[in-house]
Design brief:
Layout (H helix, E strand, L loop, with lengths): L1 E2 L2 E2 L19 E2 L29 H11 L6 E4 L2 H12 L5 E3 L6 H9 L3 E3 L6 E7 L11 H13 L3 E5 L20 E6 L12 E4 L2 H10 L7 H11 L5 H22 L2 E3 L5 E5 L7 H10 L2 E2 L1 E2 L8 E5 L3 H14 L2
Parallel strand pairs: 3-13, 5-6, 5-7, 7-8, 8-9
Antiparallel strand pairs: 1-2, 4-10, 9-10, 11-12, 12-15, 14-15
């Protein structure tokens, strides 16, 4: 969908197919949700729907701050991390400001930057005001260490630039460390419960940063950005964050199993720290769009990575063993 000079970003998920009538028999490997969510005893209170949420989200921010060991005035909320990203760039950028991003990364950064009047660059320059790092990166799964990120933050501080760190997949990534509460005023961290608790329909996002920036973002975000059910679930999910360690362990085991399958088939892939893997399909002589169609005909929906600037790559999620076996069988049939 286009509007003037802007165009909506393509995302994963079966609903991207348009007609969902035939989706029940299709396995969705395009969306990277936790396949091993800890059990959460959450029951929405329908009586709460008759009241507005507290637009300050004071209690929720305090609960989040306690869990992440920071101050409540360093926390903002959003209707998913997308809203946090949009609001951050509106608050942090002046018209004409440059933002340094990777070439192959989440497309919403580019759109959010341009909507805020900024410009995307891939090399730092005098007009650079923000550097964006997705850690682990989507779609490559590349993970930077905390020390490496702190070095980057220090370098950006010398340039007078803010480091925007997207940790959407942090809780599902092997060896991931967070910069939340790292003590650097020029670091902003975006988080989401979408992936870790597999609740894309609830839209729960958080941002962590310098209190002055957070205050500007709070003014700019729409009122009541988290609905009552999303806020209620967030309180419950915070109690189970530590249990995501078991999710990481099981994801890592399935990821290694998939590597062995890919090796046996002859598929090139990038080793990943996250719950998704980038596959290179260049050797079979077709583009990612055609390969995605082949896999869909086998009942498997994968992520065409042309929108990431990778027309010879696709991304697959890591799911349960039985589902991963179906993926491997479909890849064998389509790999020619």
């Amino acid at each position: 969908m286009k509007s003037g000079m802007f165009e909506k970003v393509e995302h994963g998920g079966l609903r991207q197919l348009g007609d969902s009538s035939g989706c029940k028999s299709v396995l969705d490997f395009s969306a990277n949700l936790n396949p091993f969510v800890p059990p959460i005893d959450w029951k929405p209170d329908f009586n709460a729907l008759s009241s507005y949420p507290d637009d300050s989200y004071r209690e929720l921010k305090s609960a989040v701050a306690r869990k992440f060991r920071c101050s409540a005035d360093e926390v903002t909320v959003g209707n998913g991390s997308i809203e946090v990203i949009r609001t951050f760039f509106r608050a942090a950028l002046n018209a004409g400001g440059h933002v340094l991003t990777e070439k192959h990364t989440f497309g919403e950064y580019d759109l959010s930057i341009r909507l805020a009047g900024g410009e995307v660059v891939h090399e730092p320059d005098a007009a650079t005001r923000v550097r964006v790092i997705c850690n682990p990166n989507n779609p490559t799964g590349e993970l930077l260490s905390k020390n490496a990120l702190l070095d980057i933050a220090a370098a950006e501080s010398q340039r007078g630039s803010v480091l925007f760190l997207d940790e959407a997949f942090n809780e599902l990534a092997t060896g991931a460390e967070s910069l939340i509460g790292c003590g650097r005023e020029n670091v902003f961290v975006s988080r989401s419960f979408t992936k870790s608790f597999a609740v894309p329909g609830l839209r729960i996002g958080f941002g962590f940063g310098d209190p002055e920036l957070i205050e500007r973002m709070e003014v700019m975000r729409p009122p009541w950005t988290l609905n009552t059910f999303a806020e209620s679930f967030a309180f419950e999910a915070l109690k189970h964050l530590d249990e995501l360690g078991e999710s990481r362990r099981r994801i890592a085991a399935e990821r290694e199993w998939l590597y062995r399958e890919f090796d046996a088939i002859g598929i090139e892939y990038l080793p990943s720290s996250a719950n998704f893997i980038l596959l290179n399909i260049g050797k079979i002589g077709i583009d990612s769009g055609e390969f995605t169609k082949r896999m869909l005909a086998e009942g498997i929906f994968i992520r065409d990575c042309a929108s990431f600037g990778l027309p010879r790559s696709v991304r697959v999620a890591v799911r349960t063993r039985g589902e991963n076996e179906r993926l491997a069988e479909a890849l064998k049939k389509c790999w020619h």
